[in-house]
Amino acid sequence: MTDDAAVAAFAASHKRADALVNCAGILARDEEYKIEVFQKVLDVNLTGTFRTCTAFRPHLTRSRGAIVNIASMNATLALPRIPAYCASKGGVVMLTKALALAWAADGIRVNAVAPGYIETAINAVGRQDAEHYDRITQRTAFKRWGLPADVAGAVLFLCMSASSYATGTVVTVDGGFLAG
């Protein structure tokens, strides 16, 4: 995600692409106030997303394909321990909207999914704190953390022709966390 040549070579190794899902992301709780950490998080989460989008653009133009960028509910709900993560995911939302407008003439649809608290490796340490885990659980409408499969359906929909009129859209999949 952070190496232009590697991303370009990866894209070139494919003869066709109908969809691109950008799902790389990192965070560094309490360390993101250090400029080098801040820049690394932005390089992976935001610039890396842009790198893959531009690398796959020719394929997606030929197939009139779709891009789905994984943002986060933290694009709109900031947390003080992860400023770079929040900024990068806010950037992913705006990058999604800008590319949707710029690349519509090429037939490329660009959307994003903004997950809430999903049980993944990125938050494994935080989930070990039972009080934190329960606080999040109680805040969601479904009274549970999400699973990757809960997000996959929204991503799949945005890749399908069933969503052919959707572009520049951000679908939040957070179990109702932001609703309450």
What does this structure look like?
This protein is 47% helix and 11% strand. The chain has helices spanning 4-12, 35-63, 83-103, 124-127, 130-139, 148-159; strands spanning 19-22, 66-70, 109-115, 170-173. It has a 4-stranded parallel beta sheet, sandwiched between helices. Strand 2 (66-70), helix 3 (83-103) and strand 3 form a beta-alpha-beta unit. It is globular.
CATH class: Alpha Beta
Number of domains: 1
CATH fold descriptor: Rossmann fold
CATH architecture: 3-Layer(aba) Sandwich
Amino- and carboxy-terminal Cα gap:
35 Å
Number of strands: 4
* CATH homologous superfamily grouping: NAD(P)-binding Rossmann-like Domain
What percentage of residues falls in helices of 4 or more residues? 40-55%
The tally of helices reads: 6
Quaternary state, please? single chain
User: Average pLDDT, to the nearest integer?
Assistant: 97
Q: Uncertain regions: pLDDT < 50 for 5+ in a row?
A: none
Radius of gyration: 17 Å
Quick summary:
This protein is α/β, with parallel strands linked by helices. It contains 6 helices and 4 strands.
Keywords:
single chain; 180 residues; alpha/beta; Rossmann fold; four-stranded parallel beta sheet; 6 helices; globular
